[in-house]
Amino acid sequence: MSPDKEPLVDSVADTAIAGVTLLLTGGISLLGIITAEAYHPDYATTQEISDLGSTAPPNPVSYEPTATIFNGTMLASGAAVLVAVYFLYRVGRPRVLWLPLGVFGFGVFGVGVFPGDMTPWHGLFALLTFTSGGIAAVLAARATPKPFSSVSVLLGGFSLASLLYALVLGDTGPLAGLAFGGIERWVVYPLLVWVTGLGGFLLGENSMNQRN
Questions:
Q1: What is the pLDDT of residues 58-114, one digit of tens each?
Q2: Rounded distance between C-alpha atoms, residue 74 and residue 17, angstroms
Q3: Among 104, 143, 171, 203, which one is most buried in terms of CB atoms within 10 A?
Q4: Which of 78, 186, 104, 94 is nearest to 140 (CA)?
């Protein structure tokens, strides 16, 4: 079956698995970050999120169990997204939906494999995650109906705009009070909301197919 065809009604089980997995991804990511922050001895949300795994050279520092919790969260979240992508492919979802989502999952998994002290790989995977996540959300509008398509564009566009701001202005300008860690959260958290919402959308669609 071509991955560009519409999903079949008799593939509701695979769609449900993809929906549940994406829904759990958002919860795993958010709770993992919160838990890692709580266990860190002196962490502030103005710091980069990846500092929970390890700070960047020349003075890399990591704390346990914070680093294990954060890196494990990234590995689990990335793997969960890739599992969802596999089932979206199986049911014939449009490539514009599952392909950028797969790149996003691969990037998240890479962030867990390469903590902040492993340069340049960590930075490359983090940038891949941020960019592909925003693009995936925007492109998802082509494969989902309104109003979710509009929400996807809004969240993906906001994330990409925040990323552009961070790349151009860093922690200066009108958002200087957020510091880089706060601005980074403006990039990441909309993507977590979108992934969770996509999971909910797929589950809702799956329920409608079962009733029909």
A1: 989 999 999 999 999 999 999 999 999 999 999 999 999 999 999 999 999 999 999
A2: 20
A3: 104
A4: 94
Gap between the Cα atoms of 34 and 59, Å rounded = 24
Contact present, 170 and 121 (Cβ < 8 Å): no
Angle CA 169–123–75, to nearest 5: 125
Cα distances from 191 to residues 3, 13, 33, in angstroms, run 24, 25, 14
CA distance linking residue 58 with residue 186, whole number of Å: 26
Q: Are 42 and 24 contacting, i.e. CB atoms less than 8 angstroms apart? A: no
d(C-alpha 41, C-alpha 91), whole Å? 46
Helix ranges, the chain (H): 12-39, 66-90, 95-113, 121-139, 148-169, 179-211
End-to-end CA distance of the chain: 22
Q: 101-151, pLDDT tens digit by residue?
A: 999 999 999 999 999 999 999 999 999 999 999 999 999 999 999 999 999
Block residue for tokens 């795994």: 53
* pTM for the structure as a whole: 0.91
Give every CB contact of residue 99 below 8 A, 6+ residues apart in sequence.
Answer: none
- The whole-number average pLDDT for the span 184-203 is 97
